[in-house]
């Protein structure tokens, strides 16, 4: 695994970042590996300059094209759920798929906890932005493509974890099929605001055990539509 040294990038005060971590802990995030990675990942570089000063507030913010950068708490919660009972001494996850790259922030967080991250985004200019942001941090373990992520990325699977950053009405069968045995899919499911549930689906052979974690608000996962501009 390649862990770039992210500490010290940018001018944002360490105190502001520390406050974000304290807030995540108060909201129940307890996985130290996740907290450590989020403490040092510069979220401000994933935002437009006009919003960068709000980067360490625990809130979702617009990134253009009607999409948002996920709230830090939600990124932490999903990453924690994807890691499951794994401890740092178990080593990183081997392969993770992210559906909905957005600006690339969550990709950067996962890339520090996995050997390889594959990420798929349906809006071409957003993917271009994400690639630019991620290249600033010198990751070497991220593969990305412009496509409909509800189809997964079969050539790169099976995956130890799949994280979806947008909500479908129903869990796409392709994502379940691309889970490795013991793999975990973390996905918001449902349509209307206030009715989406964050689900954790764990594969055991041909069985899929579903657990509902909490109510969430995500942008919709569009199926079968790829946008070029
Ligand atoms: N993880 C991102 C969150 C981005 S918001 C971050 O940290 O910034 C969710 C993203 O999912 C949006 O960019 C949206 O375009 C994308 N999306 C929605 N439906 C999709 C699909 N079918 N395939 C790939 N990406 C999709």
UniProtKB/TrEMBL annotation:
Protein EC: 2.1.1.77
InterPro entries: PCMT, SAM-dependent_MTases_sf
Active site: 70
Residue ranges that the Swiss-Prot or TrEMBL entry lists as coiled coil: none
Record function comment: Catalyzes the methyl esterification of L-isoaspartyl residues in peptides and proteins that result from spontaneous decomposition of normal L-aspartyl and L-asparaginyl residues. It plays a role in the repair and/or degradation of damaged proteins.
Pfam family, one: PCMT
EC class (word): transferase
Cited Gene3D superfamilies: Vaccinia Virus protein VP39 (3.40.50.150)
UniProt key word Thylakoid: no
Family named by the database record: Belongs to the methyltransferase superfamily. L-isoaspartyl/D-aspartyl protein methyltransferase family.
Molecular function via GO: protein-L-isoaspartate (D-aspartate) O-methyltransferase activity
Keyword Nucleus: no
Compartments (UniProt record): Cytoplasm
UniProtKB keywords: Cytoplasm, Methyltransferase, S-adenosyl-L-methionine, Transferase
CDD domains per record: AdoMet_MTases (cd02440)
Domain of life the protein comes from: Bacteria
Protein name: Protein-L-isoaspartate O-methyltransferase
Catalysed reactions, as listed in the record: [protein]-L-isoaspartate + S-adenosyl-L-methionine = [protein]-L-isoaspartate alpha-methyl ester + S-adenosyl-L-homocysteine
